[in-house]
């Protein structure tokens, strides 16, 4: 009799053990899988059960907020500024999110460990859980100015501006744009259908061109080449004479590197500042070859290229390209060939020069506060890299001021303000008109803003309008004025 009872008891214990193992597997190991499963309707409704925090700019302008809804959903997300801030706020869809909505999700929905105490108090008092508010570093006037000026060009493009002394991003505009409200509804069929439509558009409105894509920077990169040249020998300055043939013969090839439009650059030898003012190709191609790939690549790395970066959205990697022959180095040194840069990286180069050679880490989140307005986290500016010496920065600053005052960037001039800048026209491989670029900072001796402007295929006209000076520089001027005139 004892034998059957023992066997039954062992069997019961075994089944109980298996049951406990199964429960633990379900709750601990597979919990995430079931929670994220699209068929989990409870998770679907839970996304809209909490009042997400607001996203604001300058502490005042509301970019995203939750409003009470009727029916099965307690709250719905709305975006009062919609297309103007779409690439910053991102969207909050039934199953995903983007940009700030994604990177700050745990703060916005109240699930962050930093909000644990507040959740406990809410539970005790019976108050509903509310997410934290995220305030961005964006200057609303600069953002609107950048958006309007770029839109007026009728082209795709990007504008990003930052405070060179802190790294705070003051404006970030990418066109074309989209309405995040269309992707933040509760009707999955409509939301996913609209997302697919936007994703398939040739103009790629979902793309934040400031950080998601790299481009050849054209002649704006000559500032980097000049930096490497000056850093290589501290005795060099703006008046150092450099070779400037009409066509630079490239080694091991029958091809030559001409100046823009095949023009001559002075009399064959010019000062460094003259070469930058007129944006001559041949002297900078020659400088690049003399310095070599390693020194050029090292200088670019010092400005932050090739290093992981998030603002908090991740940023595409800028690069000088793979090591090739000297002819490739010459072409890369004028911003062509294999050089690929994000507009944000070009703005960081301008900002580093403006800030006496120190590049500050760019950031978008200024402050995070709880539902009652108490600060949970505040931005703490930090150095990203020491790119160049303060002496080199001063020399470059003066030369860039001369580019605006006497060279190709005269349309960026602001009365009563010394503006430093560099134009660029970048050839593309797809047969489209060149991209128009401009990098700048102002006031030159006490910079409040540094920026980069890219107009895709924007150099489509003849003469001066064909360069970054004609297309991109006027956009930069408007954005700088929006910051300086406050």
From TrEMBL:
GO CC, sorted alphabetically, is: plasma membrane
Residue ranges of every copy of the Penicillin-binding protein transpeptidase domain listed in the record: 157-481
Q: Which GO terms describe its biological process?
A: cell wall organization
InterPro entries reported for this sequence: Beta-lactam/transpept (IPR050515), Beta-lactam/transpept-like (IPR012338), PBPA_dimer (IPR054120), PCN-bd_Tpept (IPR001460)
As recorded in UniProt, coiled-coil segments are none
Signal peptide positions are 1-28
The reply to whether Signal figures as a keyword in the UniProt entry is: yes
List, for all copies, the residue spans of the domain called Penicillin binding protein A dimerisation.
52-134
Q: Write out the entry's keywords from A to Z.
A: Signal
State any single GO MF term: penicillin binding
Matches recorded under PANTHER family: PENICILLIN-BINDING PROTEIN 4B, PEPTIDOGLYCAN D,D-TRANSPEPTIDASE
Q: What is this protein called?
A: Penicillin-binding protein A
């Amino acid at each position: 009799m004892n034998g059957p009872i023992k066997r039954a008891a062992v069997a019961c214990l075994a089944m109980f053990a298996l049951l406990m193992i199964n429960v633990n597997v379900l709750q601990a190991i597979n919990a995430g899988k079931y929670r994220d499963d699209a068929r989990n309707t409870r998770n679907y409704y839970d996304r809209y059960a909490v009042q997400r925090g607001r996203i604001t700019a300058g502490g005042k302008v509301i970019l995203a907020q939750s409003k009470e809804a009727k029916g099965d959903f307690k709250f719905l997300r709305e975006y009062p500024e919609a297309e103007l801030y779409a690439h910053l706020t991102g969207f909050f869809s039934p199953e995903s999110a983007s940009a700030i909505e994604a990177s700050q999700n745990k703060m916005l929905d109240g699930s962050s460990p930093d909000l644990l105490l507040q959740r406990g108090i809410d539970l005790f008092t019976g108050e509903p859980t509310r997410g934290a508010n995220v305030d961005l570093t964006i200057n609303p006037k600069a953002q609107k100015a950048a958006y309007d000026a770029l839109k007026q060009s009728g082209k795709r493009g990007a504008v990003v501006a930052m405070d060179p002394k802190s790294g705070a991003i003051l404006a970030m505009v990418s066109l074309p744009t989209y309405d995040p409200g269309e992707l933040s509804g509760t009707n999955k069929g409509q939301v996913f259908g609209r997302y697919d439509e936007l994703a398939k558009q040739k103009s790629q409105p979902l793309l934040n061109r400031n950080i998601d894509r790299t481009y050849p920077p054209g002649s704006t990169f000559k500032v980097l080449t000049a930096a490497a040249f000056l850093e290589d020998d501290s005795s060099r300055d703006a008046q150092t004479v450099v070779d400037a043939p009409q066509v630079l013969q490239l080694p091991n090839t029958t091809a030559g590197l001409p100046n823009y439009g095949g023009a001559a650059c002075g009399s064959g030898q010019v000062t460094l500042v003259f070469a930058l003012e007129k944006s001559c190709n041949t002297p900078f191609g020659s400088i690049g070859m003399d310095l070599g790939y390693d020194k050029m690549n090292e200088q670019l790395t010092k400005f932050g290229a090739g290093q992981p970066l998030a603002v908090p959205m991740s940023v595409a990697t800028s690069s000088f390209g793979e090591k090739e022959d000297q002819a490739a180095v010459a072409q890369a040194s004028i911003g062509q060939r294999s050089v690929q840069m994000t507009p944000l990286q070009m703005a960081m180069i301008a900002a580093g020069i403006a800030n006496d050679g120190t590049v500050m880490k760019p950031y978008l989140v200024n402050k995070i506060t709880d539902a009652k307005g108490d600060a949970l986290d505040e931005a703490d500016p930090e150095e990203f890299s020491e790119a160049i010496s303060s002496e080199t920065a001063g020399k470059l600053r003066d030369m860039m001021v001369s580019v605006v005052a006497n060279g190709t960037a005269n349309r960026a001039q602001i009365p009563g303000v010394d503006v430093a800048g560099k134009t660029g026209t970048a050839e593309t491989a797809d047969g489209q008109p060149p991209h128009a670029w401009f990098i700048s900072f102002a006031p030159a001796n006490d910079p409040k803003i540094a920026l980069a402007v890219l107009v895709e295929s924007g150099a489509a006209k003849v003469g001066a309008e064909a360069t970054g000076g004609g297309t991109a520089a006027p956009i930069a001027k408007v954005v700088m004025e929006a910051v300086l005139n406050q």
